[in-house]
TrEMBL record:
Annotated GO biological process: lipid transport
SUPFAM superfamilies named among the record's database cross-references: Bifunctional inhibitor/lipid-transfer protein/seed storage 2S albumin
Protein name in the entry: Non-specific lipid-transfer protein
Stated role: Plant non-specific lipid-transfer proteins transfer phospholipids as well as galactolipids across membranes. May play a role in wax or cutin deposition in the cell walls of expanding epidermal cells and certain secretory tissues.
Bifunctional inhibitor/plant lipid transfer protein/seed storage helical domain mapped to chain residues: 27-111
Entries under CDD domains matching the protein: nsLTP1 (cd01960)
Keywords from the named record: Disulfide bond, Lipid-binding, Signal, Transport
Alphabetized InterPro entries for the sequence: Bifun_inhib/LTP/seed_sf (IPR036312), Bifunc_inhib/LTP/seed_store (IPR016140), Plant_nsLTP (IPR000528)
Organism listed in the record: Hibiscus syriacus
Amino acid sequence: MAGLKLVYAILLSLLVVSPIATTALTCGDVSSKMAACVRYLQNGGTVPVLCCNGVRGLNGIARTTPDRQTACRCLQNAARSIPNIKPPLAESLPGKCGVNIPYKISTSTNCNSVK
């Protein structure tokens, strides 16, 4: 009986500690990571440290193909809806932050082809 109680205790602790499902990346996640970059993307200048932290953070959480495709679409939608974003600044941002991403940051990128 004591052995059975131990098994139940272990199973219960695994259920509490282990996530049941992973959460998919959302545009809200992308927006919160990239918010510190908007002024730079509009005006240029020095890339803010918080912006690069956001770029690295977004790269860190967009690990699966669906997450990277979502991030791509969210970035495209943001670029279309935020006035005065300068495309060359957006394209060069990952490199300026020391992040290598496998696709071009552009409104013309086919996000379905992002792997």
